[in-house]
Write a structure and sequence with these properties.
Elements lengths: L3 E11 L4 E12 L4 E5 L6 H8 L8 E9 L2 E2 L5 H7 L4 E4 L3 H4 L6 H12 L4 H14 L5 H4 L9 H13 L5 E5 L7 H18 L2 E6 L2 H7 L2 E6 L2 E7 H6 L4 H8 L39 H5 L5 E3 L2 E3 L4 H6 L4
Parallel strand pairs: 3-8, 3-9, 6-7, 7-8
Antiparallel strand pairs: 1-2, 1-4, 4-5, 9-10, 10-12, 11-12
Helix pairs in contact: 4-5, 5-7, 7-8
Length: about 325
């Protein structure tokens, strides 16, 4: 049995005149110690799926279909008290901007001790020792001194390392990382991702990495879920997705990577943009931007089909599989 199973998850936002469907039939799983990437442009639904797992959906958003099974237990049916035992304890989350996570008027020590005492019956002294140990694990220099610091006294990279240390405080089974390096200088990003990879391996922690960057996913994850307009459009082993994508959208994301471009020329891009929730087209949502679209694509939503070790929501998946290169 998988550690985490998301089955046919649906999320909607009831509005005055209509109901907006943010996710439809989203399914994926995570085994213990596995590293899963969820990829897509802004608006694809990847962050909403993550927030649903730990019940952090903003109102009026609500789960209207499906299950979220953690160790066989459906999280969608838990009350607030039971969910608090899961959130931040068994499943931790790292957000994009560490300054939105850390309290600017409290020291790092106070914040780390508060997290531990919220989930464990532990003394301040023992909590402080664990905090120092976790800061040392994430390569914060002079961790005893840094405990006395306020968030604004640390660099962006150090703040994100502190947030990672806080996520590890309770020895969670799963860490959800929502664009954890996007707000950082590009020279710091690689170090943060390498740190997360090593920590997940050494602690046998499952990782869900949410990002728009397939280059990062290819370096960190073992499997990838590609999302578009609230649906999963492709899933499979990372190496195979990156080298032999079976959905036109995934192909477009890969072609848009800087390393896929030609020096001195404009970068490749997918024409058009992600549809808003109130303007998702009929049929395959990607068809207005797809070079392979035909009348069938415009008329009906394709089913997920298996092609080798991959799954693709594309009626032309088998044709694409026969092509040898992007």
């Amino acid at each position: 049995m998988a550690l985490l199973e998301v089955k046919n998850l649906g999320i909607e936002f009831p509005m005055r005149r209509e109901v907006l469907r943010a996710l439809q039939g989203v399914s994926f799983s995570l085994d213990a110690g596995e590293r899963l990437g969820i990829v897509g442009e802004s608006g694809a639904g990847k962050s909403i799926a993550a927030f649903a797992i730990i019940n952090l959906l903003s109102k009026p958003g609500r789960i209207n279909a499906g299950e979220i099974l953690f160790e066989g237990r459906d999280l969608t049916g838990l009350d607030d008290e039971a969910m608090r035992d899961i959130r931040g304890n068994r499943i931790s989350m790292i957000f994009q901007d560490p300054m939105m996570t850390l309290n600017p008027v409290l020291t790092i020590e106070t914040q780390m001790i508060e997290v531990l005492k919220a989930h464990r019956n532990i003394s301040d002294n023992d909590a402080r020792k664990i905090a120092v140990e976790k800061l040392r694990e994430v390569a914060i220099p002079s961790p005893e001194d840094r405990l006395k610091s306020y968030p604004h006294e640390l660099s962006g990279g150090q703040r994100q390392r502190v947030v990672i240390a806080i996520a590890l405080l309770t020895d969670p089974s799963i860490i959800i990382a929502d664009e954890p390096s996007t707000a950082l200088d590009v020279t710091i990003q690689a170090g943060i991702m390498a740190l997360m990879l090593n920590l997940c391996k050494s602690h046998d922690v499952g990782l869900i990495l949410i990002t728009h960057d397939l280059a990062v996913v290819s370096q960190v994850t073992q499997r990838v879920v590609v999302m578009y307009a609230g649906r999963v459009v492709e899933e499979g082993p990372t190496a195979e997705i990156v080298t032999h994508p079976k959905h036109p959208y995934t192909r477009g994301l890969i072609k848009a990577l800087p390393q896929e471009g030609t020096a001195g020329k404009r970068l490749n891009q997918i024409p058009g943009s992600m549809p808003t929730l109130d303007a998702i087209p009929d049929g395959c949502a990607f068809h207005p931007r797809c070079p392979h679209a035909d009348d069938v694509c415009r008329a009906s939503v394709p089913e997920i089909v298996r092609v080798g070790n991959q799954f693709s929501r594309c009626g032309k998946a088998n044709e694409l599989a026969e092509e040898n290169s992007l």
